[in-house]
User: Fold Thiamine-binding protein domain-containing protein from Senegalimassilia anaerobia.
Amino acid sequence: MNTLVAVAIAPFGVGDELAPEVAEVVRVIRESGLPNKTYSMFTEIEGEWDEVMAVVRNATFVLAQKGIRTEVILKADVRPGFENMMEQKVRSVDAILESDVADGDAEKGGIA
Assistant:
């Protein structure tokens, strides 16, 4: 089943600068071949449930196998029959916002 996850995988106890460890995690995700996007606090990954969870596991273990305590925060949207949710969800919201602006709602105190 198609699954979209937002995941944050972060090390603990490695000091104030986490970028090197986060880069290791993101590298594993990007090399997975699954569609993904990295943002400041989460990385989104989309694919079949088992594939996505394997990527989350591998990305987590890249730190944990080094003895680094690792926190995982995961939010999942399992939506049978839908694909490309990472892009489509944003397009749907953008279309509504564009429609609101075209209708003049922004000037009437609506969404700006």
Notes: The first helix runs from residue 19 to 31.
